[in-house]
Write a structure and sequence with these properties.
Number of strands: 12
Largest sheet: 6 strands, antiparallel
Structural class: alpha+beta
Order of helices and strands: HHEEEHEEEEHHEEEHEEHHHHHHHHHH
CATH architecture of the largest domain: Orthogonal Bundle
Distance between the termini: 51 Å
CATH class of the largest domain: Mainly Alpha
CATH topology of the largest domain: MetI-like fold
Radius of gyration: 31 Å
CATH superfamily of the largest domain: MetI-like
Number of domains: 4
Length: 555
């Protein structure tokens, strides 16, 4: 027995089991973390029931409360401070419930903790409705009437179907207004600004071209006419938008008349069947991924952040791959192997350990202020003193992350070049190929899988970086996407939103912590999903290249 145990230890059995156990624990921890994020994030979009109950405070005053149960905790009695007449003397642990009461414009807060001992009988009225608004968060209450131009649209029938129709109509008008403001008027303003800069450029260059000035004047006149036509249409649309109102009765019995134009959607979760709840859940998920944020990023969607993250990573990949591959090829194939080359490799490896915020400071100083300022002085003098490229933007953020991740690509590509047998190089040269042809047609294709490995690691790191991006282009809310219908279509000088920074901003800078917490989980889960999708795409390309050149070697 002792001999067998000694042979098992000498053969490395304990180390194999320790490694297997460590990998298993790591996988379980990662799966548990993702499950925790998914439960807390995805559960936010489910239409929770709205509870109604009477609540007695410590002074004996009774109030009526409407809201959703958001959380529950058991706390020691001593944590509550002074004695509370609602709690029995022998009771050591006390139940508290977090209620999302909404109605922030009337109550001042939309989340509150209540003691279970002060809660009366809890009911779930079927006619209570939740109203998602463009401002002030959710509103909970009972629908009383629907009006248009001050006249009630409902007599003795249920006003709920009428409200639903009015929300659809005003929603269509609101979408039309957004289209006119952002697409039509926005495009006209953009073209007028381009004409102003062109005219300014003629003045700076002392060019007196009557034909160009006449063309600019004619185009500007046409744009002004177009602008006035669109603004006149906006006046009509806003008049239609503000006609419809609804009257709602809150939990305290007060009634308020509010504009339907501020409603995103209204629903009655307590009377929803399961298929209706599933449809609502799918709609909310789609809104989260495809809509723009509202209410300081605590409501609505995060599409601009998704778009900015993916676009920045793609530009970064296009920039970092050629530079990293060329550097690796030079170090491995052309540079004289000596002390200097070894020092360069050590420096490249050390760059991978430099804190990312240092890269952000370098990008701000070199790319933004020095390089961007020089570009503005040379090519965009007509825009000065307003900077074009001399301010943080998408291009500088992508370049900074390319600089941050280039050591990974260099090291991976060098490892791939090292694995190519010397006999293949010599055989290519013996057949009359030059060294450059050997590299381009033989060596680099066989190194493609290693290049893709470096790119995978670079994408995984770049997608999650936040600290350098805060200095070189990321903002809390970008007014427009970096890719649109205005020439030159891809605007590398614009600031953009990023999922990593969005998570930081919502989690740590939001004034409404309780409302923001579920969105932090949901955004984090989506960021992990995007990184996984990008990596799986790169891994699939790498595996195809590996199979292709493995088959070529066998033939």
């Amino acid at each position: 027995m002792t001999r067998n145990l000694k042979e098992w230890i000498d053969a490395g059995g304990p180390y194999i089991w320790l490694n297997a156990g460590a990998v298993s624990v790591s996988v379980i921890m990662v799966a548990g973390l993702l499950l925790l994020i998914a439960v807390h994030g995805l559960g936010h979009f489910w239409p929770g029931p709205i509870a109604g109950f009477s609540y007695t405070d410590e002074n004996g005053a009774v109030e009526h409360v409407l809201g959703e149960f958001a959380d529950r905790e058991i706390v020691p009695r001593a944590r509550l401070g002074q004695a509370d007449p609602r709690i029995r003397a022998e009771q050591e642990l006390v139940e508290r419930r977090l209620i999302k009461t909404g109605n922030r414009d009337f109550l001042g807060i939309d989340f509150r903790w209540v003691l279970g001992a002060g809660m009366g009988n809890v009911t779930f009225p079927t006619d209570v409705m939740a109203v998602e608004r463009r401002e002030w968060g959710n509103l909970y209450g009972y629908l009383v009437a629907v009006k248009r131009a001050g006249k009630s649209l409902v007599n003795d029938t249920d006003p709920w179907p009428v409200l639903r129709r009015q929300i659809e109509e005003t929603g269509a008008v609101f979408d039309t207004i957004r289209h006119v403001e952002r697409d039509l008027i926005g495009a006209a303003n953009y073209r007028m600004e381009r004409l102003r800069l062109e005219e300014r450029g003629l003045e700076l260059n002392h060019v007196d071209d009557a034909q160009k000035r006449a063309r600019i004047h004619g185009e500007r006149t046409g744009l002004k006419v177009e602008y006035e036509r669109h603004t006149g249409r906006l006046v009509e649309l806003y008049a239609r938008l503000n006609e419809a109102t609804y009257v709602i009765r809150l939990a305290d019995g007060s009634e308020h008349e509010l504009p339907i134009a501020k409603i995103v959607r209204a629903y009655r979760p307590n009377e929803m069947p399961l298929p209706g709840k599933l449809g609502f859940y799918a709609l909310k998920l789609w809104e989260f991924m495809a809509d723009e944020p509202r209410e300081a990023n605590t409501e609505g969607g995060i599409f601009p952040a998704i778009f900015g993250t993916v676009l920045m990573v793609m530009i970064m990949a296009v920039l970092v791959t050629p530079f990293g591959v060329m550097a690796a090829v030079y170090l491995r194939e052309y540079a004289k192997q000596g002390t200097l080359t070894r020092l360069i490799r050590i420096a490249v490896n050390n760059l991978a350990g430099v804190p990312s915020v240092v890269y952000g400071m370098f990008g701000l100083g070199f790319f933004v202020y020095f390089l961007g300022g020089s570009i503005d002085a040379a090519f965009f003098a007509e825009s000065l003193p307003a900077p074009t490229f001399g301010t943080p933007g998408l291009l500088w953020a992508s370049l900074t992350l390319a600089l941050l991740t280039v050591p990974v690509v260099i090291v991976s590509t060098e490892e791939g070049l090292t694995r190519v047998p010397r006999a293949i190089r010599e055989g290519s040269l013996a057949l009359g190929a030059t060294k450059a042809e050997t590299l381009w047609r033989t060596v680099l294709p066989m190194t493609a899988s290693a290049m893709m490995t470096g790119l995978i690691l670079a994408v995984a790191r770049a997608a999650g970086e936040v600290a350098p991006l805060m200095l070189v282009g990321v903002v809390k809310l970008a007014p427009s996407l970096a890719l649109d219908g205005n020439a030159p279509f891809l605007h590398l000088d614009r600031k953009f939103m990023h999922l990593g920074f969005h998570i930081y901003d919502v989690g740590f800078q939001s004034p409404n912590v309780e409302a923001a917490r579920p969105l932090v989980y949901a955004s984090a889960l989506l960021l992990v999903f995007i990184v996984v999708v990008l990596n799986l795409t790169a891994i699939r390309i790498r595996n195809r290249l590996r199979q292709k050149y493995r088959a070529a070697e066998q033939n």
